[in-house]
Amino acid sequence: MLKTYRIAVIPGDGIGPEVTREAVRVLETAAELDGRFAFEFTEYPWGCEYYLKSGEMMPEDGLDLLSGSDAILLGAVGYPGVPDHISLRGLLLKIRKGFDQYVNLRPVRLLKGAPCPIKDVSPEDVDMVFVRENSEGEYSGQGAWLYPGTPQEVVIQDGVFSRKGCERVIRYAYELARREKKTLTSISKANALNYSMVFWDQIFAEVGREYPDVETHSLLVDAASMFMVKDPKRFQVVVTSNLFGDILTDLGAAIAGGMGLAAGANLDPERRFPSMFEPIHGSAPDIAGRGLADPLAAIWSAGQLLDHLGYPEWYKRIVDTIERMLSEKRSLTRDLGGTASTEECGSAFAELLRAGME
Ligand code: NAD
Ligand code: IPM
Ligand code: MN
């Protein structure tokens, strides 16, 4: 029987619409080739342009509108002209938090043929997955701005680390490491952050007692950044806080082919709400509107979407096809040394996916 999934599409700003179009093309191609499932896409024109017209990044009932979908595909949010803390808090972070997408799953995997700035590194050496806390921590949005504009001015930005919030994301990472027989590394900073990160480390150890079969490591974030470049193979499954995960996954993108290849999934593992799939890059105003954006990160996230819906074989097929494009240097965009446009890359991808099934 044909199963139809409702997908909410939020192309967003800058290169968001350009790369999302190609991700949708790939989902449509997968549905056509598979035959067991179909997609019904609903596009929402939310973002900075919408804000400039309406005064809000999405309508007040935005989350209600999205709540009936099986998954959300998002491009990128943020553009010069609207302050980033307004655009991102008003849309992307609102969805992550509103739908309790507490796991941000970001693979950092160097595919064959992808450029790597580190010498003497082979694809097997860079194969990790980040489990980034995605609902609280440094991103709690709590704080105060006191006596603005005066010499007494004080700004307070609170980090919020709840037992429930830390336990659930750490447990998710242990489960993943156990299932995949991988090591688990926790990245924190308890030497300086004497409340939040001491608590994080304590919970990492506590939960770990239930997983004696999982080999664990614990690193300070400064040393971890150094090791990611000097010795990336020491990382397999990694769990870390919201802000550290944000920063380290851009570093991860840099060692695994660049921003054009880095994908991410915002998951509600309990499936009470739709999960959201997006490339980890932003709206890239420097190249927007010129057909230069690499759609492969968005396509990789579409693969994560298919995995989440219960089709892991499609995730594998999509990542394998990206790897083929890279190793055959087929229709790549400028960031990967090619000359193809966003659309040419996306179309070539869909064609190759099709050819792989014949
Ligand atoms: P960015 O990721 O947009 O761009 C960083 C650099 O990477 C730029 O030089 C850009 O051209 C390049 N790049 C990014 N994606 C690319 C792609 N697919 N193909 C080729 N090159 C690519 O980061 P930024 O410049 O710091 O941020 C721009 C805006 O995006 C800001 O408003 C920021 O807040 C927002 N942002 C949004 C998200 C999101 O929606 N998830 C993520 C990061 C940044
Ligand atoms: C990301 C982005 C966002 C984040 C920003 C745009 C709020 O950088 O998805 O990595 O920090 O989570
Ligand atoms: Mn980021």
Number of helices: 12
Helix content: 40-55%
Radius of gyration: 20 Å
Total strands: 12
First and last CA, distance: 22 Å
How many structural units, i.e. domains?
2
| Backbone structural class | alpha/beta
CATH H-level name of the largest domain... which superfamily?
Isopropylmalate Dehydrogenase
CATH class of the largest domain: Alpha Beta
- Mean pLDDT equals 98
CATH T-level fold name of the largest domain: Isopropylmalate Dehydrogenase
> Beta-strand level of the residues, as a percent range?
15-25%
Coarse morphology: globular
Written as H for each helix and E for each strand, in order along the chain, the element string is EHEHHEHHEEEEHEHEHEHEEHHH
Main sheet: strand order? 2-1-3-12-11-4-5-10-8-9
Structure report:
The protein has 358 residues and is α/β, with parallel strands linked by helices. The chain has two domains: 1-108 and 259-358, Isopropylmalate Dehydrogenase, CATH 3.40.718; 116-256, Isopropylmalate Dehydrogenase, CATH 3.40.718. It has twelve helices and twelve strands. The protein has helices at residues 16-34, 48-54, 62-67, 84-90, 92-98, 163-180, 196-208, 221-230, 242-255, 296-308, 312-327, 342-357, and strands spanning 3-12, 37-43, 71-76, 103-109, 127-133, 137-146, 154-160, 184-188, 216-220, 237-240, 263-267, 275-279. The strands form two sheets. A ten-stranded mixed sheet has the order 2-1-3-12-11-4-5-10-8-9, with helices on both faces. The chain has a two-stranded antiparallel ribbon with strand order 6-7. It starts with a strand and ends with a helix. The model has no long low-confidence stretch (mean pLDDT 98).
